[in-house]
Amino acid sequence: LLFSRKSSRGDFVFSADRLIRLVVEEGLNQLPYTECTVTTPTGHKYEGVRFEKGNCGVSIMRSGEAMEQGLRDCCRSIRIGKILIQSDEETQRAKVYYAKFPPDIYRRKVLLMYPILSTGNTVIEAVKVLVEHGVQPSVIILLSLFSTPHGAKSIIQEFPEITILTTEVHPVAPTHFGQKYFGTD
């Protein structure tokens, strides 16, 4: 449904949201946690886990914003930053136009959200901006729905410590994702 030109927008968004939720939940599974004990409403003790403080999401605008609700559905009060990067049509060079992060992002684990990883250029620029703000690549987890082998390889070559989570690695990525998801196609 996400690759088909004939999919309705409703079917597309429904399927995309399902995949987003799965990738977000796996990303959250990668974050550090501590064990804790709580008392249930019936008075019993329950041994569980809770996230350690210091996590945040960063969406690469605009398609990455499609993943924000999935993150908020799983982690209600998580801080979310944003980066706007545009690629030049002719040179494919990415340029940063806007970046807004939690002030202490350098102390946080970062879930970087960008659903379609094609060339990797946009993500590489986003990671460079995060590094300029003191974030170590080893604490960045890229959440992506679809990745090309070239895109994933480009990112790993530039930042070997980064973690990439995706649902599929395939030579063809649905580059129309943002337009279809937001209804601007």
UniProtKB/TrEMBL annotation:
From the Swiss-Prot or TrEMBL record, what is one GO molecular function term?
glycosyltransferase activity
Q: Which residues form the Phosphoribosyltransferase domain?
A: 5-170
In terms of InterPro entries, this protein maps to: PRTase-like, PRTase_dom
Give Gene Ontology CC terms: cytoplasm; nucleus
Q: Which keywords accompany this UniProt record?
A: Cytoplasm, Glycosyltransferase, GTP-binding, Nucleotide-binding, Nucleus, Transferase
Keyword Glycosyltransferase listed? The answer is yes
Where found? Cytoplasm; Nucleus
This protein's superkingdom? Eukaryota
Q: Which family does it belong to?
A: Belongs to the UPRTase family.
* Protein's name according to its UniProt entry: Uracil phosphoribosyltransferase homolog
